[in-house]
Design brief:
The chain has about 400 residues and is α/β, with parallel strands linked by helices. The protein is built from eleven helices and twelve strands.
C-alpha cells in the first residue's frame, strides 16, 4: 500500500489518518459532518473505519484536510464542554480503506484469484458469512450482488447482474467465486462497516462474540464490549486465546513454546496455565477469568566470562513499556509522541502493510443451543475492524 500514494523526494505522502470521537460534541451524522469539512476545504477526507456508533471512527485525508477537521472538531468539543475529540494517529501516511487506494484493487484481485480455490461451496457461506463491505449476510441473489455495486464500481459484479439467475444455473461456482473475490478486493479500498456488522450480530441474537486475535491486546473484544454495553444487550465478549469452553473441559490450543528446555530442575513443578477470558455482559460487566499461573522461573545459563554492558536509560525503559502497550516497535515512537497520541481512542499505530483483507466474525451455535461469534482480528493495520463475518452452525 505504501506505493499506492504519491510521495516526494524524501518519501513523504500527503495523507494521514486520525481518530474522531463525535460523542464529545454531539454530532450524530458523522459521515455527513466529515464530508461537509471536505467540501468546505476542498481537501480529501473520508470516514474509513466505523467502529462504535457515535464514539469511535477513523478518518483518512490529506494533511490540510485533517488539520481543518481537527480544528473544527476540537473547537466544537470545547464549546460543548467535552474532551478533545480528534487526534492524528502518528506514523500513518497511507489512507487505508479509502477510495484513494482504488488503483490497487486490480492487483489485489489478481492475488485473490491465485489464492482462492476454483470451487467454493456456498452452503457454508449463505446466511452465515457477513462481508463487511456491505455488512449483510451473504446471499446468492441479484439483490445482494447489487449491494456490492452500491458501494463499489465492480465491473465483474456488473457482468453478473446482467443475467444473474441464468449464470447461477449454468455455473454456480463461478458466481460464488466472483462474489467473494469482489467483496474482498473492494474492501481493500472501501470503508469498514464494523458498526453495521455488529448490529447484525445483535439483531440475530448472537450471544457470544469471540475474537480470534492477540491475547495481550483484545482490541476487537474491547470494541465489541463497548458496543454491547451501549446496546444494553446480554452478550459475552471474549478473546479466543484467553477463553476456555463453558464446561471447563477443553482449552483453545496454544502454539508450542519455542524456548529450549531448562538445564536446571525447577524447585517445584510448573502449574497449569489458567484461563484469562475477558467477558462482558450488560448486567454484570467484565468477568475476568483466572489469572495465569506463574512459571517456575527463568532458565539459568552457565556464565562464560564477563558480561557485556549495554546502555539502557530510564527513557529507553519507558519507550519499551509504551511499545509493548501500544503494539509498536520502539523505533516507531518518536520524541513528539505523547501517551495521549499513542493511546487515546486508537488501538495502535499502523503496523507495516495495514489492512486487507481484515479479519472477521464467525457466529457459532454450541451443543446447548447458545449462539456465539468468533471474531477474527486483522493481522496488521490501524483500526482493528473486521472485513468478513461468517456464521457457522458448528462449534
Amino acid at each position: 500500500m505504501h506505493n499506492l500514494v504519491p510521495r516526494d523526494a524524501q518519501g513523504r505522502s500527503n495523507y494521514r489518518m486520525g481518530a474522531l470521537r463525535p460523542s464529545q460534541f454531539g454530532v450524530s451524522d458523522v459521515v455527513g459532518y466529515v464530508e461537509s469539512i471536505s467540501e468546505e476545504t476542498g481537501e480529501f477526507l473520508e470516514v474509513v473505519n466505523l467502529n462504535i456508533e457515535g464514539q469511535q471512527y477513523a478518518v483518512a485525508g490529506t494533511v490540510a484536510g485533517l488539520k481543518a477537521l481537527e480544528r473544527d472538531a476540537n473547537a466544537r468539543a470545547e464549546a460543548a464542554g467535552g474532551k478533545r475529540s480528534f487526534i492524528l494517529v502518528p506514523g500513518i501516511d497511507v489512507p487505508f480503506h479509502s477510495r484513494v487506494l482504488r488503483n490497487g484493487v486490480d492487483d489485489f484481485r489478481e492475488l485473490l484469484e491465485d489464492l482462492l480455490p476454483e470451487k467454493i461451496e456456498a452452503d457454508a457461506l449463505v446466511g452465515r458469512y457477513i462481508p463487511n463491505l456491505v455488512a449483510r449476510p451473504f446471499e446468492l441473489t441479484e439483490d445482494f450482488a447489487r449491494l456490492i455495486l452500491d458501494v463499489a464500481p465492480s465491473t465483474m459484479v456488473a457482468e453478473l447482474v446482467e443475467d444473474f439467475d441464468g449464470l447461477l444455473e449454468r455455473d454456480r461456482y463461478r458466481v460464488v467465486r466472483t462474489l467473494i473475490i469482489e467483496l474482498l478486493a473492494w474492501q481493500f479500498a472501501s470503508p469498514v462497516q464494523w458498526i453495521r456488522t455488529q448490529n447484525v450480530l445483535l439483531e440475530e441474537g448472537v450471544r457470544e462474540w469471540v475474537e480470534v486475535g492477540l491475547a495481550t491486546a483484545p482490541t476487537l473484544a474491547n470494541i465489541g464490549a463497548r458496543t454491547v454495553a451501549q446496546a444494553g444487550a446480554d452478550v459475552t465478549v471474549a478473546n479466543v486465546a484467553r477463553i476456555r469452553s463453558a464446561s471447563g473441559a477443553r482449552t483453545w490450543p496454544q502454539p508450542p513454546s519455542r524456548r529450549p528446555p531448562s538445564r536446571r530442575r525447577p524447585n517445584r513443578p510448573p502449574t497449569q496455565e489458567g484461563s484469562g477470558a475477558r467477558r462482558f455482559s450488560a448486567s454484570g460487566g467484565f468477568r475476568a477469568g483466572r489469572a495465569r499461573a506463574r512459571s517456575a522461573g527463568p532458565r539459568l545459563l552457565p556464565r562464560r566470562g564477563p558480561s557485556r554492558t549495554f546502555p539502557f536509560t530510564a527513557a529507553d525503559a519507558l519507550d519499551a513499556l509504551l511499545a509493548v502497550h501500544t503494539k509498536l516497535r520502539p523505533e516507531q515512537i518518536v520524541d513528539a509522541d505523547t501517551v495521549e497520541t499513542l493511546t487515546n481512542g486508537v488501538s495502535s499505530k499502523a503496523q507495516p502493510g495495514a489492512h486487507g483483507p481484515d479479519g472477521g466474525v464467525r457466529p457459532v451455535v454450541d451443543g446447548r443451543g447458545r449462539r456465539g461469534a468468533h471474531v477474527q482480528a486483522p493481522s496488521r493495520g490501524f483500526w482493528p475492524a473486521p472485513t468478513d463475518t461468517s456464521r457457522s452452525g458448528r462449534c
